[in-house]
């Protein structure tokens, strides 16, 4: 009998091997489901002092802030941001409003952050937003609806690229992730 050697029977080793493979696959699947979205608190939300409350709602949901800055966009920049609405009658007014004061630009990360971020925000028209949503609780009229959020993966990529340089996006592990997603 040899002291100090740990002998593992073949069936135990095989089970352990498959357990490790399964755990690695779960981590890969989890990483693949993580996404990023662009969220902006518009000038009305900034001027009304709603930054902390809005950030708090995203943090309490379990999303991770990976980029943030405050800017006053030019009208040209606002037009690039809202390029898809160029033919709409409210386009110029919307661009004037976005460029009228400070905007808090953010990138949030998490599983389903685009879809659930939109749910947190509520309908574009605050009158149609459910209570408990940011717009439902804090906004009154559609022209001053406090916040913008990407509406899909491609839009999110485009908006993040427009508002942030790659080096402004931070990648890090948040200790709360294991409690939110169940991944170690």
TrEMBL record:
<keyword id="KW-0418">Kinase</keyword>
<comment type="subunit">
    <text>Homohexamer.</text>
</comment>
<dbReference type="InterPro" id="IPR023005">
    <property type="entry name" value="Nucleoside_diP_kinase_AS"/>
</dbReference>
<feature type="binding site">
    <location>
        <position position="145"/>
    </location>
    <ligand>
        <name>ATP</name>
    </ligand>
</feature>
<feature type="active site" description="Pros-phosphohistidine intermediate">
    <location>
        <position position="148"/>
    </location>
</feature>
<feature type="binding site">
    <location>
        <position position="42"/>
    </location>
    <ligand>
        <name>ATP</name>
    </ligand>
</feature>
<keyword id="KW-0808">Transferase</keyword>
<protein>
    <recommendedName>
        <fullName>Nucleoside diphosphate kinase</fullName>
        <ecNumber>2.7.4.6</ecNumber>
    </recommendedName>
</protein>
<feature type="binding site">
    <location>
        <position position="90"/>
    </location>
    <ligand>
        <name>ATP</name>
    </ligand>
</feature>
<keyword id="KW-0479">Metal-binding</keyword>
<dbReference type="GO" id="GO:0006228">
    <property type="term" value="P:UTP biosynthetic process"/>
</dbReference>
<keyword id="KW-0460">Magnesium</keyword>
<feature type="binding site">
    <location>
        <position position="135"/>
    </location>
    <ligand>
        <name>ATP</name>
    </ligand>
</feature>
<dbReference type="Pfam" id="PF00334">
    <property type="entry name" value="NDK"/>
</dbReference>
<keyword id="KW-0732">Signal</keyword>
<dbReference type="InterPro" id="IPR001564">
    <property type="entry name" value="Nucleoside_diP_kinase"/>
</dbReference>
<keyword id="KW-0067">ATP-binding</keyword>
<dbReference type="InterPro" id="IPR034907">
    <property type="entry name" value="NDK-like_dom"/>
</dbReference>
<keyword id="KW-0546">Nucleotide metabolism</keyword>
<dbReference type="GO" id="GO:0005524">
    <property type="term" value="F:ATP binding"/>
</dbReference>
<dbReference type="GO" id="GO:0006241">
    <property type="term" value="P:CTP biosynthetic process"/>
</dbReference>
<comment type="similarity">
    <text>Belongs to the NDK family.</text>
</comment>
<keyword id="KW-0547">Nucleotide-binding</keyword>
<feature type="domain" description="Nucleoside diphosphate kinase-like">
    <location>
        <begin position="34"/>
        <end position="171"/>
    </location>
</feature>
<dbReference type="GO" id="GO:0046872">
    <property type="term" value="F:metal ion binding"/>
</dbReference>
<comment type="function">
    <text>Major role in the synthesis of nucleoside triphosphates other than ATP. The ATP gamma phosphate is transferred to the NDP beta phosphate via a ping-pong mechanism, using a phosphorylated active-site intermediate. Shows the highest specificity towards GDP.</text>
</comment>
<dbReference type="GO" id="GO:0006183">
    <property type="term" value="P:GTP biosynthetic process"/>
</dbReference>
<dbReference type="GO" id="GO:0009543">
    <property type="term" value="C:chloroplast thylakoid lumen"/>
</dbReference>
<feature type="binding site">
    <location>
        <position position="124"/>
    </location>
    <ligand>
        <name>ATP</name>
    </ligand>
</feature>
<dbReference type="InterPro" id="IPR036850">
    <property type="entry name" value="NDK-like_dom_sf"/>
</dbReference>
<feature type="binding site">
    <location>
        <position position="118"/>
    </location>
    <ligand>
        <name>ATP</name>
    </ligand>
</feature>
<dbReference type="GO" id="GO:0004550">
    <property type="term" value="F:nucleoside diphosphate kinase activity"/>
</dbReference>
<feature type="signal peptide">
    <location>
        <begin position="1"/>
        <end position="31"/>
    </location>
</feature>
């Amino acid at each position: 009998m040899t002291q100090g050697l740990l002998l593992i029977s073949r069936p135990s080793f095989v089970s352990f091997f498959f357990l490790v493979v399964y755990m690695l696959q779960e981590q890969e699947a989890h990483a693949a489901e993580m996404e990023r979205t662009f969220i902006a608190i518009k000038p009305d939300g900034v001027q009304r002092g709603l930054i902390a409350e809005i950030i708090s709602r995203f943090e309490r949901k379990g999303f991770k802030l990976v980029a943030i800055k405050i800017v006053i966009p030019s009208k040209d920049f606002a037009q690039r941001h809202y390029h898809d609405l160029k033919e709409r009658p409210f386009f110029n007014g919307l661009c004037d409003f976005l460029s009228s004061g400070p905007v808090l630009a953010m990138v949030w990360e998490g599983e389903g952050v685009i879809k659930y971020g939109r749910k947190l925000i509520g309908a574009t028209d605050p009158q149609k937003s459910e209570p408990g949503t940011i717009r439902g609780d804090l906004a009154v009229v559609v022209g001053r609806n406090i916040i913008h959020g990407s509406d899909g993966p491609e839009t999110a990529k485009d908006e993040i690229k427009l508002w942030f340089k790659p080096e402004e996006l931070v990648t890090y592990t948040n200790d709360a992730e294991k409690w939110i997603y169940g991944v170690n």
